[in-house]
Amino acid sequence: ANMKLILIFSALIGASLCLETFIGHQVLRIKTKNEEEVKQLQLLESLEHLQLDFWINPSAPALPVDVRIPAASVQSVKAFLESQGIEYSILIEDLQDVLDKEKQDMAESAQRQRSSSFDFGAYHTLDDINEELDHLASEYSFVTKIQIGESYEKRPLYVLKFSTGGSKRPAIWLDAGIHSREWVTQASALWIANKIASDYGTDASITSLLDKMDLFLLPVANPDGFVYTHTSNRMWRKTRSKIPGSICVGVDPNRNWDAGFGGPGASNKPCSDSYHGPSANSEVEVKSVVDFIKNHGNFKAFLTLHSYSQLLMYPYGYKCTRPDDYAELESLGRAAASSIRSLYGTTFQVGTICKTIYQASGGSIDWSYDNGIKYSFAFELRDTGRYGFLLPANQIIPAAKETWLGLKRIMEHVRD
Amino acid sequence: ELPPSHFPAARAAAVAVGYLRYLRGGPGRGLQLRELRRARRQDIDDVGHKYYLELELEDVLDKDRTVNCTAEVLYPLGSKSAAPDVQVAVQGELRSTEEADKEFYNRIRSLEKELVAENIPDSHGNIPAELEPIHLLAWVAAGYVTWQNSTENTKFHLAQVKHVKQVKRSDEDLQFDYMLLLHEMVSQEVLPWQVTVLWHPQRGARVSQ
């Protein structure tokens, strides 16, 4: 019997190869009946050239022996075991198959891990935000990411479309970050996007809202400015467009809309932070939104997020007269502010832009209102000046949560 | 009578709060407006516009309670360079900062190297705990600047302490040279402002622009 052993082992020497993958490798479980069989396996184990990889080493008859065998040696080892009457079973037919499947599982899990671990309570870069938009779009069938245009510096303007069906259903517009230094707004928009997506189907209000209407969310309305606040100047507000004839850069995108353009409350000086620009819609960031909304033709609400001051405002900014729908907008504004306050006691003042903050021409909600979108509101989120633009990250989620309640109240009214 | 939610009253209130911060603020006390309860305006011929305000204030370091205050803010007619005249009356006691002030004073006096810091808060709104008193002292300085430079067409807030440097002195005052960023709400400009603050636990703050 030992002679036979030596012969077969010699054959196995030639069969041993050095493989980089585990294609064709098998893992056998060997059940020894007595000490003699254990000794034979220990002999096998000592033959290094076979490159046998014992996962459970031979030690006592009662314990199973698990061994990984390279492809070329599989038949020889099996023949040996059979000739010795040693029982075995195949644990793994092809190890590479198992490894490939495991790798795939891990990659999928990592995708899910990385994405579901997006920290909504922290400030993120534009790249991270765009990655999360991709994740939301891939995770929810009724969420798609569309591009409505490009910024001055050629960054895509990404909008998340929430639509459960229909064809050009009445729609709600929500944007954030038109003024890039107002970081709590882009951050809140992301939390809100995730909230809406994950609550559809479980929250009665969101479900009935999206069953009747579409929602379009632009979380970073001014990506060039946003990147600039990360790389160069945290206090940057405007776009980053070059102004012909000036060393100064950028236009206040919320003075650039075609609503009382160039009137009081906007500056004609390029170096000013409220510079209205050379002409209405001169900023591509503004024009892209205008074109998108006009082409869609069925928007019922236009909501925009700013910070700071804790205000909930409706038109007008360019003139200090009341809009035709004053009573309804004031009442709805108060209801929304009340919803906001219900969560943490945060108080928002309600009123027209002109009375509440200042007269300001060329603003977005004035344009939307004068273009037939009745429910036009501008929010100024937390705080009232203690931290101002530099709101601590631990306030992002509370701010987003309370703001969402206000937005929801308005959306419910629009829906009904 | 003015609606407290409208900007004219809000701007006058900001001046009153700035003045109060300058008068009563310090490294251990940060006064903030909790609510503007009531506002009235009186136009005085040949003098200016006078606002009568009822304010509810809180200390950011002690938010469980508030203190009421009345203020009169008189914006002088015409001349842009004259600061508004402000009178304030605080009803009741503000929380004592004697302990905190002494601790801060001793800590800074015992520093081997002069304190230097920048970006308070940082981009993400963080303020290290040991720099909070420096931040609140900046509020005192910003309060002074606000009071001195406000008109009915401005509303200032301290946006950020860009840079602060302690200057060791031979007398008993602490000196901090600040580069402040002030956010002016109406123009939306963020304006750099250099100020020097002298501070002493008993003598309080003195600000020079």
Automatic annotation (TrEMBL), chain A:
Belongs to the peptidase M14 family. Its main location: secreted. The keyword Disulfide bond applies. The keyword Metal-binding applies. This is CBPA2 Carboxypeptidase. One of its GO terms (cellular component) is extracellular space. It is found in: Secreted. The gene is Cpa2. Keywords: Carboxypeptidase, Disulfide bond, Hydrolase, Metal-binding, Metalloprotease, Protease, Secreted, Signal, Zinc.
TrEMBL record, chain B:
Pfam families: LXN. Residues 1-99, 116-209 form the Cystatin LXN-type domain. Signal peptide: none annotated. Keywords: Protease inhibitor, Repeat. GO terms for cellular component: extracellular space. InterPro entries: CYSTATIN_LXN (IPR049897), Cystatin_sf (IPR046350), Latexin (IPR009684). One of its GO terms (molecular function) is metalloendopeptidase inhibitor activity. Belongs to the protease inhibitor I47 (latexin) family. This is LXN protein.
